[in-house]
């Protein structure tokens, strides 16, 4: 299944995708409209993975970036999904089919990736921001990857990626995962928290750095989301790339992530702020 064209009306299509950015050894991020995709692995081999698959219609952008960074015809060993929302799986069907590679996700996310369960629609009551107000029209239906998608290993390992582990960080969705490399404490947080106020079109355009909770209009369980942020803060990451917003580093990251963990209800939960 592929998504329809309803998403095209969302007034963010004029946002320019960012450049390929190296944020840590063998960790690259690419902004595709309003969302980040991540590439983990060495440039001179095919031993790399793609984390998330961007917005609907972004396959050509991702493929062009891959050819430029990893070489013409390069393909990943696998695609790992932090979760199944439309802006993270928008090009998964085309990319997985083009590359003929497996897709991995948390077991609790599989119903949303195999056509069995739809996410709740976006909730416009969480914020007066334009992107929140438009959220009921965002695609929420499941995609169906069939047998191409499988569950991540129960032990937290990531096949073919030594030194990395996946961490269950539910709340935004039941099977949301984040990735962590302990050697240098690099965190790929997905939407467990983000570094831009995703509900606001102005903030998304300006990309002002601000650590907040997961996108409010799609978050399903706020207590789990709070627990997940506390879990990630306890890892003391030195760099974090999130599903939305710019990467965050070192002291700034530590101070603001701790503040979010300590004051999550006030900062992140709709209707609980100052």
UniProtKB/TrEMBL annotation:
InterPro entries for the chain: Metallo-B-lactamas (IPR001279), NDM-1-like (IPR050855), RibonucZ/Hydroxyglut_hydro (IPR036866)
Which CDD domains does this UniProt record tie to the protein?
yflN-like_MBL-fold
Please give the Gene Ontology molecular function terms for this protein. Answer: hydrolase activity
What UniProt keywords apply to this chain's record, in alphabetical order?
Hydrolase
Q: Which SMART domains match?
A: Lactamase_B (SM00849)
Tree of life domain: Bacteria
Instruction: Quote the catalytic activity from the record.
Output: 3',5'-cyclic CMP + H2O = CMP + H(+); 3',5'-cyclic UMP + H2O = UMP + H(+)
Residue limits of the Metallo-beta-lactamase domain? Answer: 34-244
Q: Which PANTHER family match?
A: METALLO-BETA-LACTAMASE DOMAIN-CONTAINING, METALLO-BETA-LACTAMASE DOMAIN-CONTAINING PROTEIN
| Stated role | Counteracts the endogenous Pycsar antiviral defense system. Phosphodiesterase that enables metal-dependent hydrolysis of host cyclic nucleotide Pycsar defense signals such as cCMP and cUMP.
Q: What is this protein called?
A: MBL fold metallo-hydrolase
**Where does this protein come from, organism-wise?**
Cohnella thailandensis
